[in-house]
Design brief:
The chain is globular, with a radius of gyration of 20 Å. It is about 40% helix and about 20% strand. The two termini are about 25 Å apart. The longest helix is centred in the first third of the chain and has 17 residues. With about 350 residues, it is α/β, with parallel strands linked by helices. Bound molecules: nicotinamide-adenine-dinucleotide, 3-isopropylmalic acid and manganese (II) ion (MN).
């Protein structure tokens, strides 16, 4: 059966990096993958064209797709929009919420060729392979009440950090399952020394543990986890945490792998439908220059093949092609050593395609 893929380039470097990832999808198609690919607007681009960061037509097409590939949204042009419901980021958050994409997988995997690009010493990151499982449709990102209002003659801003047991349990199960397929170590990151919501989080994780006897569960406070990630990151296998802590820790983990431009992600719902995107943003500082690293987006296509399309062999082939171009010394500016020759976004795409075809 033909599977539907919706590509949402978004803003900033989004169109540049998704263009390269779309070429990889087309190469898979040429190899017999039965897909139909279409494109739609999201984020600031959608706001500019249609007055909404998530037009109804985009949402309807996302619902109908087996998988969505998203570039990135946002940028200074829209940061001052008075109506925050129109901000590009609301388009992304709306997609996650509407599609029920609660399980966000962010693999911080060091390609050995990039050990020197990591901000940590090579011996600290050699062989690094962490899977961060981030809850994506709850927590402080979505809790009610929220707002900015006048109280006692001054404005106050507030958000609500809330998780139900059911929300914690379903992300906990994703993480335990993931750990049982990997090195069987799960570290749950919380702030249970201060926040009731994460006291409950910890309790639910403990309650699930006996169902996964092969997995060793540990707990860590988020401040310590941030420190441990840059002190001795290889102690982690699978990390499970809430929406905001996961956002922050995954950007830190990205740097261990050489660049935020290397970190892909999958966001999954209960029925296996997924949205795939790099963990980085729209990088307004380098947008339009053909210098952004497209590998996180290309690796997100590999995750799409693995998690939504059941095409693990093709996924491995893309990952191998990325390994090959790194072996061949190709580097975009973010992963280049000082003085090393760099390639453009499109040249990196060319090289991945050539390697993919040669495998
Ligand atoms: P960012 O990730 O866009 O950029 C941070 C730094 O990393 C910048 O110096 C940028 O040039 C660099 N960088 C990011 N991706 C890169 C790549 N592929 N290749 C090379 N360098 C890369 O984060 P920011 O600057 O905090 O945010 C910019 C905008 O992106 C904001 O509007 C933010 O809301 C949005 N954002 C969107 C997403 C998303 O769509 N998923 C994620 C994060 C941030
Ligand atoms: C990410 C981004 C988003 C988030 C923003 C753009 C809403 O930082 O995907 O990591 O905070 O989840
Ligand atoms: Mn983020």
């Amino acid at each position: 059966m033909t599977r539907k893929i919706l590509v949402l380039p978004g803003d900033g470097i989004g169109p540049e990096i998704t263009a390269q990832a779309s070429r990889v999808l087309a190469a898979c198609q040429a190899r017999g993958l039965d897909i139909e690919v279409e494109e739609a607007l999201v984020g600031g681009a959608a706001y500019d064209a249609e007055g909404s960061p998530l037009p109804e037509s985009t949402l309807a097409r996302a619902r109908a797709a087996n998988a969505v590939l998203l570039g990135a949204v946002g940028g200074p042009k829209w940061d001052t929009l008075e109506d925050i419901s129109k901000r590009p980021e609301k388009g992304l958050l709306g997609l996650r919420k509407e599609l029920g994409l609660f399980g966000n997988l962010r693999p911080a995997l060091l390609y050995p060729q990039l050990a020197e690009a990591s901000s940590l010493k090579p011996e600290l990151v050699a062989g690094l392979d962490i899977m961060i499982v981030r809850e994506l449709t709850g927590g402080i990102y979505f809790g009610q009440p929220r707002g900015i209002e006048e109280r006692d003659g001054q404005r106050v801003g507030y958000n609500t950090y809330v998780y139900s047991e059911a929300e914690i349990e379903r992300i906990g199960r994703v993480a335990f399952e993931m750990a049982s397929k990997r090195n069987k170590k799960l570290c749950s990151v919380d702030k249970a020394n201060v926040l009731e919501v994460t006291m409950l989080w910890r309790e639910v994780m403990e309650r699930l543990a006996p169902e996964y006897p092969d997995v060793e569960l540990s707990h860590m406070y988020v401040d310590n986890a941030a420190m441990q990630l840059v002190r001795a990151p290889k102690q982690f296998d699978v990390v499970v945490t809430g929406n905001m802590f996961g956002d922050i820790l995954s950007d830190a983990a990205a740097m261990l792998t050489g660049s935020i431009g290397m970190l892909p992600s999958a966001s999954l719902n209960a029925s296996g439908q997924g949205m795939y995107e790099p963990c980085h943003g729209s990088a307004p500082d380098i947008a339009g220059q053909n210098v952004a690293n497209p590998l996180a987006t290309i690796l997100s296509v590999a995750m799409m093949l693995r998690y939504s399309l059941g095409e693990a062999a093709l996924a491995e082939r893309i990952e191998a092609a990325v390994g090959q171009v790194l072996d061949d010394g190709l580097r975009t500016a973010d992963i280049a050593a000082e003085g090393q020759r760099t390639v453009s976004t499109a040249e990196m795409g060319d090289a991945v395609l050539a390697a993919f075809d040669a495998i």
